[in-house]
Amino acid sequence: MMRRWCAVLLSLASVQAQAQEPARWPTVYVHSLQGVTLHDTALLLPRPGSGPRAFSLALAQALLQQLGRTQVVSDVPLARALKALDARQPAWLVGLLRTPARELRYQWVLPLYRDTLVFYQSPLRPLAATSWQQARQLPVCVVYGSAPEEYAVQFGLQRVERSSSYALCLRMLAAGRVSLAPVVAGDLKAKLQEAGLSVAAVQPSPLPTVPLQSYLVASHATPPAEVQAWLQAWQQLAASAAYRQLRQRYWP
Fold first, then answer.
1. Closest CA to 97 of 148, 60, 49
2. What whole-number distance in Å separates Cα of residue 127 and Cα of residue 123?
3. How far apart are the first and last CA of the chain?
4. DSSP-assigned letter for residue 251
């Protein structure tokens, strides 16, 4: 069974081991993969059982294979990926959370999964705040350019500390340097592992949670024919057993 899945993984990732893609194919970006990929290989391979981001990467690779394309998936920081999509050039981004501020900036092509944004606290320093007004002066760590940053500002939190990674925010929370660290619930396990923390290091705060949905998006410069090709590939994949196998493997 393990050999079979290794063969499937290598098949899905083989598109990344070949030459750079022709200019006619828009670049495919992915972000925030810390803790959800295998590190003992030169290929960008999702780690089995690592959750929605691993599943999204595997799905994007499967779609590229369905399209017959030999192009790499570029793992870059979120800010860089958004800059590329905003630059009026054809491009794709795997796994962008849909928020009000982003609504008009991109083509929201394919919903990948639903999740929840949770403002986590330390169990050693539980908070009494149950509303955003009560939490206004609490220090909160967010990743620069992320959906958690957008919502923290929208909710009126005034002591926002911006970081380069969720792992760093979680370490700051565990160390007592901040009172809150918002993380998408489905990402928490991988981010805790990256931070070297146990699941007991954090717990949900009494503050409200925020429902979110992650998408495969395209820049507005991406041609309609390209978008339609991806949608057709998705329809074929979703109707096959391969889709269910990917979901069971990476996001059971």
1. 148
2. 9
3. 17
4. -
Counts of helices then strands in the chain (DSSP H, E)? 8, 9
Which residue, 3, 24, 79, is CA-closest to 229? 24
Look up residue 46 and give its amino acid. P
Q: Compute the C-alpha angle 63/69/75, nearest 5°.
A: 70
Strand ranges (E), 88-163: 91-97, 107-121, 139-143, 159-163
Measured CA distances, 209 to 11, 60, 160, 206, 228 (Å)? 39, 28, 18, 9, 34
CB-neighbour burial class of residue 70 (10 A; exposed 0-12, middle 13-18, buried 19+): middle
Residues 232 and 237: their CA atoms lie apart, in Å, by: 9
What is the value of pTM for the model shown? 0.83
Other C-beta atoms closer than 10 Å to the C-beta of 109 total: 18
| Closest C-alpha to 42, from 20, 60, 62, 16 | 16
What is the number of other CB atoms lying within 10 angstroms of the CB of residue 154?
Answer: 13
What pLDDT, in 10s, does the model give residues 13-59? 554 544 444 447 999 999 988 878 887 666 789 999 888 999 999 99
Cα 153 to chain centroid, rounded: 20
pLDDT in tens, 102-139: 999 999 999 999 999 999 999 999 999 999 999 999 99
